[in-house]
């Protein structure tokens, strides 16, 4: 993608036609009209497949929403009582919300991380503004929770960052099991090194030993 094409990306250009047609139906005189508009943009997360799996030929793979849902549930398992797990769940539910319009960009895509951040920051501000039309405080909260994650501003965000990697690795392990030796997704497992908290490290270490056992069994059959 050329530099010119990259910087041409705007939120407005990323809004798909089915959402564009809704924009003329909201009115600041009717704040509640922004609720369904915002949530129909969120719906895009339910149909967008996670690019990393698509790139590795996983048929019928999970969506971005699937990933965030299981992350939300995962935060409820954190047993460190000093962590505000309700806040973790909220961060999990919004951390990839900008991908509704930006799309799911992997570390191997041609979009560099500054451009990815630029697009996602424009989008989260756009989404936050939509919610503020209905409720100022809720719109601000969604933006702040997203920034907590993006900038790892809190220990809760650090846990969610770790769970983002754990959830991906668990999904990777599930795809490797499903494909019974046909798909060895080694590339993703380098993410283990990014996990920082002791508790989530213990989750990852357990998963890694399960994966090692799986491949020992699969490779013994060959
Ligand atoms: N091909 C690879 N894709 C990867 C890797 N690590 C992450 N990813 C994918 C997973 C998602 O599709 C996307 C970003 O995920 P976020 O949850 O961070 O938005 O990138 C990898 O090692 N290889
Ligand atoms: Mn994520």
Question: What would you say this structure looks like, in words?
Answer:
There is one protein chain. It is built from 13 helices and no strands. The chain has helices at 3-8, 11-14, 17-23, 33-42, 44-47, 51-55, 64-75, 85-94, 99-102, 113-134, 136-150, 155-178, 198-220. Helix 7 (64-75) packs across helix 12 (155-178). 27% of the residues are buried. The site of manganese (II) ion (MN) has 4 residues, from loops. Its EC number is 3.1.3.89. Keywords: Cobalt, Hydrolase, Magnesium, Metal-binding. Homodimer. Its cofactor is Co(2+); Mn(2+); Mg(2+).
Gross morphology: globular
Q: Helix count?
A: 13
How many beta-strand segments? Answer: 0
* N/C terminus separation: 42 Å
Percent strand: under 5%
- Helix and strand content put the structural class at mainly alpha
**Uncertain spans:** none
The oligomeric state is: single chain
Helix content: 55-70%
């Amino acid at each position: 993608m050329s530099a010119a094409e990259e910087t041409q990306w705007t939120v407005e250009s990323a809004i798909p036609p089915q959402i564009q047609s809704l924009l003329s139906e909201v009115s600041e005189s009717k704040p509640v009209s922004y609720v369904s508009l915002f949530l129909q943009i969120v719906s895009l997360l339910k149909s967008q497949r996670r690019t990393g799996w698509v790139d590795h030929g996983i048929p019928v793979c999970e969506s971005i929403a699937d990933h965030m849902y299981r992350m939300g549930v995962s935060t409820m398992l954190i047993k460190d009582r000093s962590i505000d797990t309700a806040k973790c769940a909220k961060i999990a539910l919004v951390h990839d919300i900008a991908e509704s319009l930006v799309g799911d960009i992997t570390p191997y895509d041609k979009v560099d991380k500054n451009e990815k951040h630029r697009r996602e920051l424009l989008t989260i501000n756009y989404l936050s503004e939509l919610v503020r039309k209905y409720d100022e405080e809720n719109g601000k909260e969604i933006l702040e929770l997203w920034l907590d994650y993006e900038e790892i501003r809190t220990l809760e965000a650090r846990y969610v960052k770790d769970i983002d990697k754990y959830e991906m690795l668990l999904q990777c392990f599930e795809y490797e099991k499903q494909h019974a030796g046909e798909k060895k997704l080694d590339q993703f497992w380098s993410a283990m090194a990014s996990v920082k908290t002791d508790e989530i490290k213990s989750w990852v270490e357990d998963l890694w030993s399960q994966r090692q056992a799986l491949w020992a069994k699969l490779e013994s059959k060959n």
